[in-house]
Amino acid sequence: xxxxxxxxxxxxxxxxxxxxxxxxxxxxxxxxxxxxxxxxxxxxxxxxxxxxxxxxxxxxxxxxxxxxxxxxxxxxxxxxxxxxxxxxxxxxxxxxxxxxxxxxxxxxxxxxxxxxxxxxxxxxxxxxxxxxxxxxxxxxxxxxxxxxxxxxxxxxxxxxxxxxxxxxxxxxxxxxxxxxxxxxxxxxxxxxxxxxxxxxxxxxxxxxxxxxxxxxxxxxxxxxxxxxxxxxxxxxxxxxxxxxxxxxxxxxxxxxxxxxxxxxxxxxxxxxxxxxxxxxxxxxxxxxxxxxxxx
Length: 295
Ligand SMILES: NC(=O)c1ccc[n+]([C@@H]2O[C@H](COP(=O)([O-])OP(=O)(O)OC[C@H]3O[C@@H](n4cnc5c(N)ncnc54)[C@H](OP(=O)(O)O)[C@@H]3O)[C@@H](O)[C@H]2O)c1
Fold this sequence. Notes:
Elements: E1 6-9, H1 14-22, E2 27-29, H2 39-45, E3 52-55, H3 62-67, H4 69-90, E4 93-99, H5 130-142, E5 148-153, E6 156-157, H6 172-181, E7 186-189, E8 193-194, E9 197-198, H7 199-211, E10 216-219, E11 226-227, H8 228-239, E12 246-249, H9 269-273, H10 281-294
Parallel strand pairs: 1-2, 1-3, 3-4, 4-5, 5-10, 6-9, 7-12
Antiparallel strand pairs: 8-11
Helix pairs in contact: 1-7, 4-5, 6-8, 8-10
This protein binds NADP nicotinamide-adenine-dinucleotide phosphate.
């Protein structure tokens, strides 16, 4: 049974656009429609009559957050507090998008065939960057609502075409395709691992969660733990690009402001048990390519 009214924050972001593309009755709010740091606007604007708010709005550039900690805290933590308070007042369910980066990446449990990634929902977070600290605070604020779901995901990718006001692609896959198209070399790290997630799969999972009675934390991410280097090779495979342009580097070879976890791949067994289907890297990239070919 579909619930009555779903509101999406961050509606002009990658994930927000995939959600509203999948369900037409979704009310999608961009930053121009609603700045989540403005409490009075939040409480006035949205929540009356909403059954569920899927809260995607965030500052997602990890290095920007590191150099702008106040902005990151205002949007990712206190913006989420505003959304959570408005949800509580309206009796709406809150689905909060969080990140694999809440973990420090130091867990070393060997993977078995049953486990798709290292971290399970009950593992203790230990964030190591400003972005991840503010996202974890957001998780805590989300829990002040009566009905909350925290969805942790990882390296979300999908078609960025059609995004308003964006000259250059922000996400790794789109950036990599653009560079390889132009014959530019790219450097990709081989000693950090995530669970890259196709935005179309994640959007479907979120809408399923909106319609379900589930409450709590769930990991919804790609079903394959993979390094950025191996992921780049798959991008080249699927999109027919020249693999020799991809240079294998170590994490310390790239100058980045914020620290990243070594292995923040997510175990998605719980989501699978709930009937949520997430693609591995090759299948997710294939879905993205098929979408591009239809355009
Ligand atoms: N992308 C990933 O790899 C990844 C991984 C793990 C978790 N997540 C989480 O998943 C969620 C969605 O990510 P995404 O990939 O869709 O990110 P995205 O493309 O960067 O979209 C985030 C959106 O939030 C909006 N926003 C920023 N500040 C705002 C404010 N003060 N008020 C209202 N809106 C604001 C941005 O507006 P503008 O368009 O105006 O900038 C943007 O459209 C985020 O919560 C993120 O933390 C993402």
